[in-house]
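To the wet lab folks,

You asked to see what we're planning to order before we commit. Fair enough. Below is the target structure as tokens, and below that is the sequence we designed to fit it. If anything looks off to you, flag it before the synthesis order goes out.
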């Protein structure tokens, strides 16, 4: 399979996975969105974590430790994220806490609404498209930009897709335990 064909195939799977994430967000009732009563992180935490890391894993270049230390360099990843405010301190707080957002004890200064996270997800589509274009241009064998996934860009795209599906499954499980069925996305177009 050539890089162009791989990009098309994996692109359809991203489209399906991200549509299922959107469906889960749309199906989530308000009383579940920020609920902590089930001894787990709230629904919106899983959504935010999934979108953030989808965007991170599709970035063109991972910020160096030195540049990643500043909130301005981090802005590329949080553009459109529902922050309390856009101060340097708030952006640094988000940067330092995003990996732990799905832990049940994590807290945030405010709860973003579904529409805010859907807008953040919409902005993430451009990052996915960029990654797919890099693969299509014979870039599947190039080393990916993420230090903890040292394999190729193609490996990183599949790793990212598994991460999305893991959290979408978690969200669908949270909904299913409450008798809510989020729509499955089938097909290959």
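Sequence we intend to order:
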């Amino acid at each position: 399979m050539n890089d162009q064909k791989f990009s098309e195939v994996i692109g359809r799977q991203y489209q399906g996975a991200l549509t299922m994430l959107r469906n889960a967000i749309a199906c989530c009732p308000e009383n579940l969105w920020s609920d902590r009563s089930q001894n787990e992180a709230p629904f919106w935490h899983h959504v935010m974590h999934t979108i953030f890391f989808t965007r991170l894993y599709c970035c063109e270049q991972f910020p160096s430790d030195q540049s990643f230390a500043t909130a301005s360099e981090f802005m590329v990843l949080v553009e459109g994220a529902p922050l309390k405010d856009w101060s340097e301190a708030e952006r640094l707080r988000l940067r330092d806490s995003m990996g732990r957002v799905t832990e049940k004890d994590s807290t945030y200064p405010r709860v973003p609404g579904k529409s805010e996270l859907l807008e953040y997800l919409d902005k993430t589509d451009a990052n996915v498209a960029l990654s797919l274009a890099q693969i299509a241009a014979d870039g599947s064998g190039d080393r990916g930009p993420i230090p903890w996934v040292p394999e190729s860009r193609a490996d990183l795209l599949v790793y990212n897709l598994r991460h999305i599906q893991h959290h979408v499954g978690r969200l669908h499980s949270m909904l299913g335990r409450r008798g809510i069925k989020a729509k499955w996305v089938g097909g290959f177009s």
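Structural context that might help your review: Residues 3-30+41-176 form one domain. The chain has one domain: 3-30+41-176.

Thanks,
Computational group
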